[in-house]
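in:
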C-alpha cells in the first residue's frame, strides 16, 4: 500500500479516484476481503469507503495484528549494526521507523543511530562535527572504509618471520665458523699435519729426527 500511495503522489492522483484505483491492485485474499466488506456495508446501509486514508486504516486494522507495532518498537530498540554494512544498518533502521509510524525529532534519531553503531566506528565519529543525520551517516561510511583498508595495508608491508631470522642467524654462524675455526678444529688440523711428518732415523711418523724418542748406542771399536 505504501508503494501505491507513492505512485499516487508522484502522478498527482485526485483523492476521489485513489480508493477505486488502489482496489484494482488487490488480489487473492485481499480482493475477497474487499468484496465481502463492500457487500456487508451495503447490506446494513453503511457508507462505502471513499477516502484513501480510511482505506489504509481499515486494511491496517484487518490485516495487521495489534502486537505488530510493539514488536517493531522492540526490534528498533535492540537494533545493532554488528556485521551489517553502514548502508544496510541505516536502511533497516529507516524501515523500522517507517513501519512503526514513528515521527520523532532528528536529534532523537541521531542518538538512536549512534547507540547501535559498532564501538570502533562510534568512538571515532563522536569526536567529529556534523550538522544532521545525513552528514553523520557519510562520516560513518568513510570511517568504515578506512577500517576495512587497514588489514590490507598491514599484510602488504614488509615483514620478517621467525624462520627468516633463524635462517639468517644460521648462515651467519656458518660463515663465521668457516672464517674463524674453533680451538678444537685448530688442534685437529695440527694433529693431521703432524702425522704426515716422518723421522729419517727411526722411520716413525709424527716427529723429526732431532726429537726422535729412540736412543741409539754407538759402539766404538779399538
Amino acid at each position: 500500500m505504501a508503494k501505491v500511495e507513492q505512485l499516487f503522489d508522484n502522478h498527482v492522483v485526485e483523492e476521489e479516484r485513489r480508493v477505486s484505483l488502489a482496489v484494482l491492485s488487490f488480489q487473492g485474499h485481499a480482493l475477497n476481503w474487499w468484496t465481502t466488506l463492500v457487500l456487508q456495508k451495503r447490506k446494513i446501509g453503511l457508507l462505502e469507503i471513499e477516502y484513501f486514508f480510511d482505506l489504509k486504516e481499515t486494511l491496517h486494522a484487518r490485516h495487521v495484528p495489534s502486537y505488530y507495532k510493539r514488536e517493531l518498537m522492540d526490534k528498533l530498540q535492540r537494533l545493532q549494526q554488528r556485521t551489517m554494512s553502514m548502508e544496510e544498518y541505516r536502511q533497516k533502521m529507516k524501515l523500522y521507523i517507517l513501519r512503526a509510524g514513528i515521527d520523532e525529532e532528528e536529534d532523537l534519531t541521531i542518538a538512536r543511530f549512534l547507540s547501535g553503531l559498532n564501538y570502533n566506528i562510534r568512538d571515532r565519529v563522536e569526536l567529529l562535527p556534523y550538522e544532521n543525520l545525513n552528514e553523520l551517516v557519510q562520516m560513518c561510511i568513510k570511517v568504515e572504509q578506512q577500517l576495512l583498508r587497514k588489514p590490507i595495508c598491514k599484510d602488504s608491508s614488509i615483514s620478517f618471520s621467525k624462520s627468516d631470522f633463524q635462517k639468517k642467524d644460521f648462515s651467519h654462524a656458518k660463515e663465521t665458523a668457516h672464517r674463524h675455526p674453533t680451538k678444537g678444529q685448530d688442534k685437529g688440523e695440527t694433529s693431521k699435519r703432524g702425522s704426515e711428518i716422518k723421522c729419517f732415523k727411526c722411520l716413525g711418523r709424527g716427529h723429526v729426527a732431532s726429537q726422535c724418542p729412540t736412543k741409539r748406542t754407538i759402539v766404538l771399536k779399538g
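note: The chain has a mean pLDDT of 80.
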